[in-house]
């Protein structure tokens, strides 16, 4: 395994540890709210990038 791929080598114990830490930091009730906000942010980003692409196509024509 090369050095640049080392951070991507996450095993099941590391994932479990991350889940436990997130649960301890935010609590079980707060996590769905955080994921909903993250999802809406990603959707807004995709919409904005599509608008940018369409405006570039309009300028090229």
Automatic annotation (TrEMBL):
Pfam families: TatA_B_E. It is a single-pass membrane protein. Keywords: Cell membrane, Membrane, Protein transport, Translocation, Transmembrane, Transmembrane helix, Transport. It is found in: Cell membrane. The chain crosses the membrane at residues 6-26. Forms a complex with TatC. Part of the twin-arginine translocation (Tat) system that transports large folded proteins containing a characteristic twin-arginine motif in their signal peptide across membranes. TatA could form the protein-conducting channel of the Tat system. Belongs to the TatA/E family. This is Sec-independent protein translocase protein TatA.
């Amino acid at each position: 395994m090369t050095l640049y791929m080392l951070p991507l080598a996450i095993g099941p114990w590391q994932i479990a540890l991350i889940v436990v830490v997130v649960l301890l930091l935010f609590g079980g009730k707060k996590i769905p709210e955080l994921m909903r906000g993250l999802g809406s942010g990603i959707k807004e980003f995709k919409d904005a990038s599509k608008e940018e692409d369409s405006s570039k196509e309009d300028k090229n024509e």
